[in-house]
Structures are given as structure tokens and as C-alpha cells.
């Protein structure tokens, strides 16, 4: 009897503890003697720190430490550039930068102490836009260098000749803005010094091991002197990787006080401290043949990293190159420039740079298809790369369900009918839009390894502990691991338990990023479970006097397939695995590493699989108020194989809501570099009333490299939302919005411009 | 440059955290919302529980649970016999048995609540001595069976013929009493329910995995639903294995309240709840040839387990048989009977039954040697089994340093000079005594496995995490593991870290008992470290373009032995082990299992090695007060190879003090089954003023099965103390004390009896 849940809707194994309020987030933790940390942040986007007087703060009863840059290690931390200190010294480079940290016996006292710290600043001219940053006379955000943080240039084929041969060449510039990750749980850490003097850190993170590496770098202590345990993590969306200072500050305060210290961001602090997504200006030029074939592509990106580059260079890299692999492209030229400003830092965000470029590309294709009298869906299909092909950047496409995704969306939204239906008159117009996207499942460029190790322990009761340091951040990776192990061993999911990542104990893993966990850890889990089964079968074969190939696991027992009454329970065999000559606890470990390549320069097959998605929306545009409402949405995700459709629909729908937020509502409002709306009242994420009944579909393209064919699911689903909405707006009112978010003001301005142009045309 | 510390005096790796007060014992732990548990115990040695009324206790504000036997699982727990419930139901069988448990918000409230529990008992006739227990008409301690808990009969050769051929046959009966383990830290546990509903237990234990198994058995939940983490453990001495109910009660209260619950024994509770050593009456008959050769041995043991047998059957087994293996014995008959009484339970204790028998045997040899005009040391040497021989019970002796131990002791105490010196007249007499003993290093009979698994992780900084579930209980096992791993990898000890046992994460291990950790885990650590080195060398060979056999580890680097400038740091290679094609975190696991045998019936080579020890003491006996003072002591321990002489001297001296306590001072005073001296004021452990300058020596017999030749160290050293003192007392005053402890009353009675006998002789 097979009990597998693979392919069926499985509630998250973490659901019960969360629903019952039992899950322990770092902000829930209380340790005897624990102090509370708070951070003083710069009010200026760019200033010299003339002096800091902490004496009054230190004198406040209950304050145990007040640290400034002078008390922090000399080391600088960062990803692409090591350029940031835990606490600023000498200069601050954005409004919100960490200047001092307090530890006190209560959070209230710590907060009060912040007010008593006297900092004298000398304000410096600030760079507030990338354009300003690129000006030759601009002040330098970082000393001794200009404001270009990173550049990427790519060229393939002959773009000029391609454009010359094209039937239509179109160029436009698109702009998009930063989005705050908006997870429910702000960043939180409890750090303490263990009895042996080692730093022990519980933190909300997407990667315990990367967190440990960064703590080591920033605090200048060996990784072996640090233990990071992932606390229950209430969402990440890219924001809880290695760009925020929350756990560094908690660690520093613990080291300096010798006490447990909890640092929980409030929402404003989290807005200031976390990295929002990278704003980009994309100038896109495509050459197209009459049949929709794209013959040439030219891209210029100006991306803004803010004061510190973090992962922005890698994000821009994705913007610059990933969408190229979606098409059978031959001629390409791109030039991307990442610019420092004195704004809060940007970085990783769900989709990792894909959304920015896909907004431009899908808007552009829609425009050009209309000009050529083509259906943009056909243009996508015409150009779509196929399974078995190698893309312009050397990506080997093992599977693609893009066409099926597009077809699902067209069906669901009634594409043909609604596009061709006559538009009703009146002030409220409807339109439909569609967009397509691709994403990676894994990425070798993280460091020439894209593997994962899963360790299994089969206990004496025949149940299985699963050890992996890939992070459950709400996306369902623990459920995926439990499903796979349960499937391979044919045991109930309830007989598996995934142990939280702990760098002292878990096998090394990169963590939850680049949609890599299902493919990397999923494959490792299959290998580990099969290794465990092999050990169980070898021992059971001796016990049952047969050969391993005659055995099966069913109903809690290992039995001879053809003589099921001949059996031993899993518990018996697991116990016997210990209690015998040359015994040992049944523990196996398996690693799977993608057969991918570090790209040489920018060329190479970096990901073992690629997920595709498409989304169709119908919008209603109120031409009097300019308000855009998404009235219907269908997003289709090619996840290779849906290991857990329930989880995939959930993640896919969540992604599409986040895309709607970015497209229509969410915008971090800066005035002179200062964030004006760092709270959920003023930073308007889409609430239930702004979202239609969410619909989503799954395409199973069965990837040859995926576990049972699965690829990373649903991150791709955030990519097509914004351009689908922009295309639907155009469909509704004929106005092309190239500048996100699509606010009522921009819609009204577009309508006015359109009417003016039409008037001009009439009057011409 | 070799940095090894093997064979040198190494401070304990756990010392710093303990000396600084940073080590976290279970009693130090505070968890938010934690309740405090207290236990109501039976005041009667034997009674029927007529009724329990908990209503008043439950009504006390702050009380969260009051549990009785009716609230506890139906399961019974135990080692040899499953006969004990977590909380008594129906009957109590000893004064101190757990009847009810309270959880309250403070310890004070919990204590107050105990007073409000109304228990009506109907007292039953109690069995208070083994003799009573063996009476045909005795009340049964357990229903449906007589009071014989266990019997062991062994016979080899022809004992009667041997006695007939002997030049001297001597029989005597020896009695010894229970000793309380007297660790500094009473038993303590914090139990909580984790967010997934699993029971999580931090407890002071000698074995996290055996604790988990027992929690599973007693609480009737699968082992996989339980996580046991060993808290810092302040001594065990056999008392923290699987016989006390402390962590069961904490677990039960946590399960029933859903809250964290801490249960810390106070000293009286610990006296009542823990198992003291097994009191035995040993009747020993030896036949000896004129030259001291033992030709026949007959043993009858009546041992008392108290109300529940726990590990007493196994302890009696050791008493019955272990000392036989010390000699080249051929004719042997023994009959041992374990008897239930209504006294508090007895069980495992440092030496595990060896001390009881060695007291009899060494006293007996001393007596017979004197009768034959021999030096008892020569008798020991004449009969001593040699390396390479197989003992009467099938034990294969790989190494023995017994003769060297005896020689060390003789030299140190000036044996020949002092024995032959004329005794000074006066009321204070001096005498010297010596005794010899053997012990096992490991014991397969625990369950047909006597192995250990050690897992190592080499971090990216080239430092090593050591995972083992063998328990550091103060004896130094963590230091031993660190030394071995550091030695094999030629890195500083400070670059190793032993992670505390955690059943979710550590590889399976049996724990710290039977002096098995050095040999089992030590050998596993060697294998694991070599496996790690092999992986490092394989990778470094590629990097350095050489072959692994050309490489060495030195000064933090892997280098070509003959070209030391060609090198890569350990950190570089460890990082490269991850960050490359088919990489993974460097993690290895190795298991070592002893090549021993489960004994068939009672015959078999159960231990991979055997440690020997001898002790010589000089005592002063005040013939007016009867007081015996040890004025000099030298104990010599054959530990195979002294991996850490500092630790061995410490453990050896500790053992000899505990032996002095047992021989002279410590005695649990029962009146009608009730303990009268359950505190350190009335239970007189030897304090500094009662102990001479402790001297100890080491013999390195280099065992073929031991890591670098090492065997279990220093447990043997508790065995010869009591008989050495008894022999010295005889040497001083001619009085043979056969009944421990050697109190002034017994000495004076002995002197009176001796004078009476001498008077009789004169008058005859």
C-alpha cells in the first residue's frame, strides 16, 4: 500500500504550530537575563559624524551598553563589495544607517536611551538619484571611488545588422521602483554567549550558514565560534538573506555585554534596515520581424543600489541577462550600470531582478505586437525557447511549460473573446493583458556549488528525523522534504520530522534563495532516503532470509513483496541496526549538486532547471479617477512537477498579489533621502479588497534534473503580474504606462496626453 | 610540528565554563512561562493507597496541575523488570516512592501544594531486610511473585575436589552497605512541549539516548516524539542512568500542562529518589595451595535491590562474576540472589558491583595469606591473569598492568618496611593494607552493541565540531574527544568543539557507563578524524598537484611534507570542500564497535579491554576511640595509556576518596524503611580533613584494542580502597572487620572480642 502524498494537496507540516500560536519566532524568545537592543539611526542621507556623546544614555538606569562605530570591529562586511560597518564610523551614507546600539533591561529603557545619545553631524551633499550619482561632479557616496558600483556589458551577434534587417524596431524606457518585502515578521534575533564563550544566535533568516559566514566576517570571529539557529521565520522574500544588520547588531551587543540580547525591528526600523528591491530604469530596443520573431535586442539599465551595494550587483545581473534566455535570441547588446546613492540600500527581492526586466520586456512585446497586428501571446510563443535548446547565454533548457502556461492563462481569462469584444462606452473601461516570464531553479554563481546535503536518522521507532539547513521561511520546504522522505520510505508524513537549521549540527547548506531548495534539497532527500532504505533492506534481508530486491516497505514494516506475511517492523530493523555486531544508529547523508557551470565571464549554464510562468489579468480603469482595479487574474506556474499543489497555488497566488502591490500600490516614498511611509498604514500593500478572487494553474513540464521532475515553484509567478496589468491598462484605455507604480495620477496624465495627441491628430 | 596533547596534562575543555559559573545545569535553566514541579512521596515503606484527594492542592492559586498515579500512563518502566510506574498507583513499596506530582508557578507554591494533598494509606507489613524477604511467610513486595528478584548460578570445574586438594580452605561472610552517589548536582530536568507537540527534555544524565528510550517507555510516546538534550551534568557515578524518576516526572508534568516544567531534586529528595549502591552479603570460600595459588572458589551473594530492581540484577551479576576474571581460576561455584525489600531502590554505582565483591575477596586473600605466611601481594601476583590469557568466563585479556600497579603501591607506601616494622606500643596503632581489582572498559551485554559513533564537521575556518552522544559528566570525555581529534588532525584543542548530546542531532550512543567511552568513542574519534583527514588530503592533493600520501597537516595548513612551502590552509581546503563541483560540507561519521561477544548464558568475552588497579593505604587506629584515619594512600590505575594524566589522577583520587567514604563514613541510615540521614550534615561524606594527601600512579599497559592503547581509566580505582583499609586495620590492630562501614563502634567491638579471645586463650 503506497501512502505517498507526492502530487497531492498536503497541509504544511509547520501549519499546526503556527496556527496554534506555538511556533517560536525570535521575537517570542525570552532568555533569563536577556537584554533588549535598540538602534539609533542616522537622520541624514549623508553626513559626517562629528562627535557622539553616549554618557547620558549610559547613565540611564537599566542601560547595559551603548555602542558606536568605535566599539565595533574594524571589519567591513558586504557581498560584492565589503564596504559596510556594523555601526557607522566617520560618515553616514543613508537616512536610517545604524549609528549606535543600546542594550538595556527593557525595550522601553533601550528606546529612551536612544534619545539620550548626542550625535553631532555635519551634513554633506547627498546623491539622491542615480542620475545625480552618475554626474561627474557628484559627491562620492564612498570615498576614493566614483558612484558606479558595478557594470555589466554583454554582446552577442551583430545587433546593428539585426536591427537593420528588422521589420519593426522599437525603443522605450521603463522605470520601476523599490518594493519593501513586507513579510509579516520583522527581522528579529536573539544572540547570547554560550558557556564556552561562543556566540549563539537565533535569527529569522533565509540561510543559517550564510548568516554565520556574515557574522564571522563582520564580527571578526571564526565561524566555529558562532552557532546560528534558524528561529521560526515569518517570511523572507529575499529580505532575510545577508543584507540586513539586525543579527550583526544583536551579536555585537551580546559579545560586548556577555548577556543574551534580543533585537526585534519594529516596522519602521524594518523598512529602514531591510533592503527593498532594486529600482531600475530599463531602456529596451527590440528589432522584430513581421511574424513576431525578435531579431535583435539592446538593453541599457541604470540600477540604483542605494548607499551600500549588498546583493544589488547580482540583482542587476539577473535583470540584464535572465530574460534573454527565455527567447531564441541571437543578437544582443546590453550595458547595465549600478549606481550608489545616499538612499537606503536595495537588494534581493523575490524574483531577484526578474520583475524589473520582465516589466519592460512584456510591455515592449505587447506594444510591438499591436504595432504589427499580432497577438502578443503568439509573439511569446514564436520566440520561446524550447526544451532541449541552449540559450544565448549557454543555458541548457531541460524543460519548458511556457506555452502551456500561456494557453492556460488565455483559456482562463477568455483571451480571444475579451480582446476582440467591442469596448463598452462609459467612464469605466475594461481590458485584458498577458505576460510571460522565466526564472531559475538554483544558481551555481553563488559560489561554484549549488548543492544541498540532507541527513536522515531513522530512529528505533522507525520514524525519521530529517536534517537540512535549507530554510523553511513559510514557502513549504519542510513539507517538501517530509513528503519526499515519506514517499521514498513509504511511511506517513507524520513519521518524519524536519529539524530546524542549526549550524553546529545541520549539514552545510546554502539556504532558501534562487528557488533552489526543491531541486537541490529535494534531490538530496531522494538520495538520502534511498540510502536509508538500502541500509534497512540490507539488514532486513538478513533477518528475513531473502535478498534486498525482494523487499518493500509497507504499513510500517519491511516485508517480502511476494510473501507479505514475512516481515519485520521498521522499528525492529532500525533498532537492530544499532543493537548488533558492528551496529550503529541508522544515519545517512546524501548530497546532490547541480551539474551546472560557473559562467565564464557571463556565459554558462548556471541553473539545473528553469521555471516558467504566465499571467493574464483583466482590469477595470476608471477614466474619471484614474483608478485601476484588477478584476480577474489567472497565473500559471510551470513548476515541473507539482509535489504539493496546495503549496504551489498558495505561493503562486501570494506572488501575484505581491506583483499587484508593486504594479499598483506599493512605493517607498523618499523625501531628500528620508523614508516618509515606513509603516503599513502609509505603505499601501494590497489588502483583500484590492485583490480579485485569485486563480492559478499549474503546468507540469517534468524537468529531467528535478526531483520527480519538479523545479523551483512560484517565484516565477511574481514576474508577469506588473506587465500583465500594464498591458491590460493599455488594452482598456490605450495608455501605455512605462513608469511603475500605475497610480491614478499617471493614468489620468496618460489619458490627458492621449486625448491631447488625439486632439492634435484631429486638428492636424 | 606536532601539536598533540596525547599523554600530556590537559585542563578539561569544560573547565572554563564551570569555573566561571557559566555552565548551564538544568537547575539553572529558566524558560518563559516555566512551571516548577515537586513530588509527594510515600511516608510508608509499604502501604495501600486508599484514596488521594488533590482538590485542596489544585485550588491553591498558582497550582497548574496535581497528578497522581491515575493521571500517569499505564506503562511500567524498568531495566530488568518493567515494574515501576511514574507515580504509584494502588500501592507504595518504599518510603520515598513518588505518589503525586505538582506543577506550580513557583517552587514554593508547589511545595505548599504537596502539603494539601490528602492521601489515605493503609499500612502493610513491610520487608525491611533481605533475610526477611527470603522468609517463606514474608509479605510479597510485588504482587504475584516471591521476593527473589533475580538469581545467578555459575559453576565451573570441580570445586569440591579443589577444596579437598587445597592446603588451606577459608570461608567468611562479608557485608556491605549502600552508598549514595553524592554528586554535587542533584538530579534536575527541564521538560517542555515544543511547537510541534514533541516533548523536549534537558536533563542531567549519563546517557541522553537511554534517557529518551526510558521516557518513551514510561510515557508511552514514540522516541521520535521526544528530544533529550544533556544539560551540563554535575557528576553521575552511576546515579544518573535510567533508575531515577526525575526526568519522567518532569516529562509527565510538561505533557499534562503543555508548559515548560522544571523539576530539581533537593538533597533529601535526591537521597530518596536516586538509587544508592547495592548492599550485599557475600559468603566467600577459597581453597588455596601453600604457595598462594587459589584452586577453588565458592561464592554466595545475597543482594538487596530494595523495592524496584532497576539495574541491581546487572550489578549483582558483576559482583558475582567480574572478580573471577582477575585470577587464573579453574574451579568456581557461585550462587547469587537478589531480593526485594521495601527499602528505597538500589542500583548502579561507580564500580557497578565490583566494590562489594572486591571488599570480600581482598579481605579474604589478606587473611589467607597471613595464615599461610605469605605476602598478600604475592598471592595477588601468583593468581593474576596475564595478558594474552582467557579467563574462566571467557574474557580475553589484552593487557594487564596489575602487577605493575601492585609494585607502584608497594613502593609508594614502603610496603615491605612498614609491614615488617615492629608495631609501636600505645593506644594509636598504625598498619598498612593493600588490595587489587579489575574492571571492564565497555560491556557488550548492554544490548549486543558496545559501539560508539563520532561525527565530525570541519568548518570553513578549518576548525572541527565533534558530535557524540557519549556524556561528559565531569569525567573528562569531551576533553578526551578533543584531544584525539586534535591529535589526528594536528590542530590545537581550541580548534575543536564538542557539541552536547542531543538525541535529535547527535549520532546514537549508549552513554557514559561501564567505563566504555574512552575505548568506544575514542576509537570512533580516531576513525572519524582519519576519515576527515583523508577527505582533506584528497582535495588538497588536487589543489597542490601531488598525491595524498605526500601531505601532512601542520601549522593550520596542509602541505607537502618535503616541500612545506607548498601548502593550502585547512580553512581554504575546508571551504573548497563545499564550494566546487560535487562539493559538500566536510562531514564524516565513523563507528567503532568492540569485537566482543554477548555471553552465552554467563560465558563470553564481553569487554574489549580490562582495567586494573591497586591501592595501598596506611591507617592509624585509635584503640581508645575506635577511630580509623587513613594517613597515607597510593592508588595506581592501569588505564592502558594515559591520554590525559591530569584527568586520570583527578578521577583516580576522586574514586579513592569515594571508597574511603564507603569504607569508613557513609551509610544510609534506615529506620523501619525510612531514611534518617538524607542530607550532607548527617550523611557524612569524607571532607578534606578526613583525607590524607592523595597520591596516585599510572600504569600504561597499552591495550591492543584501546585508542593509542588506552582503556577506561579510574573507575577501577574505587574498588580496592575499602579492602585496603580493612586490611590495614587488621595490620594495625589484628581485628578483621567484615562488615562495612568500619565504624569506631565496630573497631572497639572487634578489639573487645579480640582481647576476650586472647584472654580465653591465656586462661585456656
From TrEMBL, chains A, B:
SMART domains cross-referenced by the UniProt entry: Ald_Xan_dh_C (SM01008)
SUPFAM superfamilies documented for this protein: CO dehydrogenase molybdoprotein N-domain-like, Molybdenum cofactor-binding domain
Cited InterPro entries: Ald_Oxase/Xan_DH_a/b, Ald_Oxase/Xan_DH_a/b_sf, Ald_Oxase/xanthine_DH-like, AldOxase/xan_DH_MoCoBD1, AldOxase/xan_DH_MoCoBD2, AldOxase/xan_DH_Mopterin-bd_sf
One Pfam family named in its UniProt record: MoCoBD_1
Gene Ontology terms, MF aspect: iron ion binding; oxidoreductase activity
Residues in Aldehyde oxidase/xanthine dehydrogenase a/b hammerhead domain copies: 20-125
Name assigned to this protein: CO/xanthine dehydrogenase Mo-binding subunit
Amino acid at each position: 500500500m503506497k501512502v505517498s502524498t507526492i502530487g497531492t494537496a498536503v497541509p504544511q507540516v509547520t501549519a499546526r504550530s503556527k496556527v496554534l500560536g506555538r511556533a517560536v519566532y525570535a521575537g517570542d524568545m525570552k532568555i533569563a537575563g536577556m537584554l533588549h537592543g535598540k538602534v539609533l539611526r542616522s537622520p541624514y542621507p549623508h553626513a559626517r559624524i562629528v562627535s557622539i556623546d553616549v554618557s547620558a544614555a549610559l547613565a540611564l538606569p537599566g542601560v547595559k551598553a551603548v555602542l558606536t562605530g568605535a566599539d565595533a570591529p574594524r571589519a567591513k562586511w558586504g557581498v560584492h563589495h565589503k564596504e559596510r560597518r556594523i555601526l557607522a564610523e566617520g560618515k553616514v551614507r543613508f537616512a536610517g544607517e545604524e549609528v549606535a546600539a543600546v542594550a538595556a533591561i527593557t525595550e522601553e529603557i533601550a528606546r529612551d536611551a536612544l534619545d539620550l545619545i548626542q550625535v553631532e553631524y555635519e551634513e554633506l551633499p547627498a546623491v539622491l538619484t542615480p542620475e545625480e550619482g552618475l554626474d561627474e561632479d557628484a559627491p562620492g557616496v564612498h570615498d576614493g571611488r566614483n558612484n558606479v558600483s558595478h557594470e555589466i556589458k554583454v554582446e552577442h551577434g551583430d545587433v546593428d545588422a539585426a536591427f537593420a534587417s528588422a521589420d519593426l524596431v522599437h525603443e522605450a524606457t521603463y522605470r520601476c521602483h523599490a518594493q519593501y518585502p513586507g513579510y509579516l515578521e520583522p527581522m528579529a534575533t536573539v544572540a547570547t554567549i554560550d558557556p564556552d564563550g561562543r556566540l549563539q544566535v537565533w535569527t529569522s533568516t533565509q540561510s543559517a550558514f550564510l548568516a554565520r559566514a556574515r557574522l564571522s566576517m563582520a564580527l571578526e570571529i571564526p565561524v566555529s565560534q558562532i552557532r546560528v539557529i534558524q528561529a521560526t521565520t515569518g517570511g523572507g522574500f529575499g529580505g532575510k538573506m545577508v543584507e540586513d544588520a539586525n543579527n550583526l547588531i544583536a551579536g555585537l551587543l551580546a559579545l560586548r555585554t556577555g548577556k543574551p540580547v534580543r533585537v526585534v525591528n519594529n516596522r519602521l526600523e524594518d523598512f529602514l534596515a531591510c533592503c527593498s528591491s532594486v529600482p531600475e530604469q530599463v531602456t529596451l530596443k527590440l528589432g522584430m520581424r513581421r511574424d513576431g520573431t525578435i531579431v535583435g535586442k539592446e538593453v541599457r539599465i541604470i540600477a540604483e543600489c542605494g548607499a551600500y551595494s549588498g546583493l544589488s550587483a547580482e540583482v542587476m545581473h539577473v535583470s540584464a541577462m535572465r530574460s534573454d534566455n527565455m527567447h531564441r535570441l541571437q543578437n544582443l547588446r546590453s550595458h547595465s550600470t549600478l549606481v550608489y546613492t545616499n538612499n537606503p540600500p536595495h537588494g534581493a527581492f523575490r524574483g531577484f531582478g526578474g520583475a524589473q526586466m520582465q516589466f519592460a520586456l512584456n510591455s515592449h512585446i505587447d506594444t510591438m505586437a499591436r504595432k504589427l497586428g499580432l497577438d502578443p501571446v503568439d509573439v511569446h510563443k514564436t520566440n520561446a525557447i524550447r526544451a532541449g535548446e541552449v540559450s544565448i547565454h549557454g543555458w541548457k533548457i531541460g524543460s519548458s511549460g511556457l506555452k502551456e502556461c500561456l494557453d492556460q492563462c488565455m483559456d482562463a481569462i477568455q483571451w480571444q473573446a475579451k480582446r476582440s469584444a467591442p469596448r463598452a462606452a462609459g467612464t469605466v473601461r475594461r481590458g485584458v493583458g498577458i505576460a510571460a516570464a522565466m526564472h531559475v531553479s538554483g544558481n551555481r554563481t553563488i559560489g561554484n556549488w549549488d548543492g544541498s546535503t540532507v541527513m536522515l536518522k531513522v530512529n528505533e521507532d522507525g520514524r525519521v528525523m530529517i536534517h537540512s539547513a535549507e530554510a523553511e521561511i513559510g514557502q513549504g520546504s519542510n513539507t517538501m522534504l517530509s513528503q519526499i522522505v515519506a514517499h521514498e520510505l513509504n511511511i506517513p508524513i507524520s513519521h518524519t520530522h524536519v529539524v530546524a537549521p542549526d549550524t553546529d549540527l545541520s549539514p552545510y547548506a546554502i539556504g532558501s534563495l534562487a528557488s533552489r531548495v526543491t531541486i537541490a534539497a529535494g534531490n538530496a532527500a531522494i538520495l538520502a532516503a534511498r540510502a536509508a532504505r538500502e541500509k534497512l533492506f540490507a539488514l532486513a534481508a538478513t533477518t528475513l532470509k531473502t535478498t534486498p530486491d525482494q523487499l518493500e516497505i509497507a504499513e510500517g514494516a519491511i516485508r517480502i513483496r511476494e510473501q507479505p506475511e514475512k516481515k519485520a517492523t521498521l522499528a525492529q530493523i532500525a533498532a537492530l541496526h544499532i543493537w548488533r555486531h558492528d551496529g550503529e544508529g541508522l544515519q545517512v547523508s546524501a548530497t546532490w549538486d547541480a551539474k551546472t557551470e560557473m559562467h565564464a565571464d557571463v556565459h554558462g549554464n548556471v541553473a539545473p532547471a528553469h521555471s516558467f510562468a504566465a499571467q493574464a489579468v483583466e482590469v477595470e480603469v476608471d477614466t474619471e479617477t484614474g483608478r485601476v482595479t484588477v478584476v480577474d487574474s489567472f497565473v500559471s506556474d510551470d513548476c515541473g512537477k507539482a509535489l504539493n499543489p496546495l503549496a504551489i497555488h498558495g505561493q503562486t497566488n501570494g506572488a501575484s498579489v505581491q506583483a499587484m502591490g508593486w504594479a499598483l500600490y506599493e512605493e517607498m516614498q523618499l523625501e531628500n533621502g528620508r523614508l516618509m511611509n515606513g509603516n503599513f498604514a502609509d505603505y499601501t500593500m494590497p489588502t483583500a479588497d484590492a485583490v480579485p478572487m485569485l486563480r492559478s494553474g499549474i503546468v507540469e513540464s517534468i524537468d529531467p534534473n528535478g526531483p520527480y521532475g519538479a523545479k523551483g515553484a512560484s517565484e516565477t509567478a511574481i514576474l508577469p503580474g506588473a506587465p500583465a496589468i500594464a498591458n491590460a491598462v493599455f488594452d482598456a484605455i490605450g495608455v501605455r504606462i512605462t513608469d511603475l507604480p500605475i497610480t491614478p495620477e499617471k493614468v489620468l496624465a496618460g489619458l490627458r496626453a492621449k486625448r491631447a495627441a488625439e486632439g492634435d491628430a484631429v486638428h492636424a
